[in-house]
Design brief:
Number of helices: 6
Order of helices and strands: HEHHEHHHEEEEEE
Distance between the termini: 76 Å
Mean pLDDT: 88
Helix content: 25-40%
Largest sheet: 6 strands, antiparallel
Strand content: 15-25%
Low-confidence stretches: 18-29
Strand order of the largest sheet: 3-8-4-5-6-7
Length: about 200
């Protein structure tokens, strides 16, 4: 009796369809760092990790050297935050390097700048293309509040007709008007500002 019952159960199980559940896919993201092993060179590390010798040198402050040591941890890739930070630093450095150059309407360097020309060229130096005039620049990115300002953001005054580059510490780089050179100044008062703009796709 018990044997017949077991046979019936096995027969019922055998009639059930077999459903294969796929395993969850493993993440295939590239590692951000690697520890140098015997035999490693910048060239073969770059080939294995989808980067270049030049990028490895830049990310690890190697200059033009290709010398690495066993056990050394190397950065392989930038993350999004690091890329943005580097581009922002480049834009700010460009803008600050223009301090002292004369303002001239409708110019964008290299010897004179108007406000939008300076901001456009600063971000262009970082590989980001802004429109030429303030009334188009103000439409790029997203609006933020004064408390949300971070270095690299755009600050608009004069009903959107003037733009300055925020560099942190309540300071902007400003190409103001005829007779005044490009200079650093305090962030304008809240009531003077019509928009704070954060560039979202840097």
């Amino acid at each position: 009796m018990r044997h017949r019952r077991m046979t019936a159960v096995l027969a019922a199980l055998a009639s059930l369809p077999i459903v294969l559940v796929p395993q969850a896919a493993h993440a295939t993201e590239s590692p951000q760092t690697v520890v140098v092993q015997p035999g490693d060179t910048l060239w073969n590390l770059s080939r294995r990790n989808g980067t270049t010798v030049e990028d490895l040198q830049r990310l690890n402050n190697l200059g033009t050297s290709t010398l690495i040591r066993i056990g050394q941890t190397l950065i392989l890739h930038d993350d999004a935050a690091a890329i943005r930070a580097r581009k922002t630093a480049t834009a700010i450095a460009y803008a600050k390097a223009q301090v002292g150059k004369p303002y001239r309407f409708a110019t964008a360097g290299p010897d004179t700048f108007d406000c939008s020309g300076l901001v456009m060229k600063a971000w262009e130096a970082a590989g980001y293309q802004l429109p030429r005039v303030t009334y188009d620049q103000i439409k790029v990115g997203e609006r933020v509040t004064r408390d949300q300002l971070i270095p690299g953001d755009l600050v608009f005054t004069n009903n959107g007709g003037h733009v300055e580059l925020y560099i942190g510490d309540d300071t902007v780089v400003n190409a103001g008007h005829t007779g005044v050179s490009v200079h650093l100044q305090d962030l304008p008062r809240e009531e003077q500002i019509v928009a704070y703009v954060h560039l979202t796709d840097v």
